[in-house]
Amino acid sequence: MTPDEKQAYAELLEWQKQMQQPPSMLNRLARRVQARLNALLPERVHKAITATIKQMVRAVLFGSTYISPQPLVGMPLPARETSVRTRIRYYRNTAAAEGAVTGAAGFFLGLADFPLLLGIKLKLLFDIAALYGYDVKHYPERLYILHIFQLTFSSQHTRNEVYRRLADWENYCNTLPTDVNAFDWRTFQQEYRDYIDLAKLAQLLPIIGAAVGAVANYRLLVQLGETAMNCYRMRHFAKESSEVVPHVS
């Protein structure tokens, strides 16, 4: 390994430890707080958010929303990750600006931030997948993207389960149903909504909405980018390990 690859591998190992931690008391407390915060929003708002997430997930599964970038081939990991970090910075800044504008505009335009931010996040994941050399036109790769998304924006309990699937993806993807409608989008959208509500609820409030929107969106995109990088690092190093020819004495 090169020094850069060794650094990436060390970061991956540390991240894997975090993904496998059991739910803490703070995690359980956060879920109870989340339930109370959800009660503050009108039911029509919950339904609108749920419907938006459902349609976005279906669009990704059927591949009808995004122009799929061409997978990058023949490039070493450090060069790929330089490009990935550049894309993360671009989408991070875009999301922060979008959050500031919609947060400053008040309650109703603040609601528009949910579908806009979701679209930015998914487009980032499509770009990252291509930069790591994966063709997102393929159904399993689109499901991999959704699993990365779910891993990032879920409770620790769900995160443990999703991580196990991703860590054994080459075997797990062989068990995937051929029907894209079989994806459990209900759990996906509920976990995502509950996760971001805690960070984004204050964006709907006057005066402070702009600042909250910018900071929350910035951090959420950074978190998503970091998770995606480590998920694709897992596949990269697993593939390298499987390609090593055993020494014959």
TrEMBL record:
It holds the Pfam family EcsC. InterPro entries: EcsC. This is EcsC family protein. It comes from Hymenobacter volaticus. The lineage of its organism: Bacteria, Pseudomonadati, Bacteroidota, Cytophagia, Cytophagales.
